[in-house]
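tool=predict chain=A
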Amino acid sequence: MKKAQLLSILILAMAALGFISGCASMRELTLRSELARANEAFEHEEFALAASRYESLSDRYPDSLMRERLMFNQGMSLYKISSFNAARDAFVKYVNEYPSGRYVADARDYLRKIDVYMSMASPAQAEAIEQAKADLVKLNQLKIEHPNDPKVFTALGNLYWEMGDYNEAVRNYYEATSLDAAYKEKELIKGRMMITAKGEAVPITPEQLKKAEADANPVVVFNLHEYKSRDTEEFLGGNKRYFNVTGMARNQGSKPLANVEIEVVFNNSQHQVQDSKVVRVGAMAPGDVRAFRAEASSYDNLYNITSYNCIPHWTN
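tool=predict ok
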């Protein structure tokens, strides 16, 4: 083989390696962006949403260096909502895949706690009963200090229910409901008037409320459509490989918005997350309307997708 031919082959090989490296970098950047959404849900104590996002990311990026952290965070999110069976499965899977992982000690600790919670052994039951009694003393003291707070009576009802005293639980639930109704009437009144700096009571009109609601939730998603598309490499009779969602986003608020994004979460019939995509819309002035399209590219899950949610995000 001539030297010119060898040089051409070497250049092509180096170019291919550079392309592969660039693709890997893009995938890692996309993962980091979507990971921020999962972490945000966790920080806002939306643990069920965080768990589904961590699971989706670990499934879609099995070769990522972050997968170990994603799996551990999924288990921790499930633990936070007392979904102990699912949390246990997540931690066991993590320990099996990463027996010498960075978080294996914490994972084993969570597994021990879950086994205690799920155990019906008498020592655990006795400890739970003693804790319930201590909580009952505290709540009864709170009831004396805050006799008109429905939250205290609701907490008492929950505690009595867990202890098996259903009649006392219902009595506290009824009291909480009565107090809560009175509070809701007060909230209704407060929602229809405000006190000015001069101490005067003035009405809050429906127009003002509508404007405030629009400014609080400025991004409206509408005109949604869904369709399945074929692989671009097999467009002549190829198999359908993508689930697409198109729609429009409008800034109905009175202020310009920056970094507008639409997160589309694809679910199956059991409301389990099959895929998720974040579509960048960009800056939007008041009244602006933009189109967007999200594509679920997981071939195995394509025909399992039965519904989807569109969640807007923005910064003022």
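DSSP finds nine helices and eight strands in the chain. Residues 3-43 form the longest helix (41 residues).
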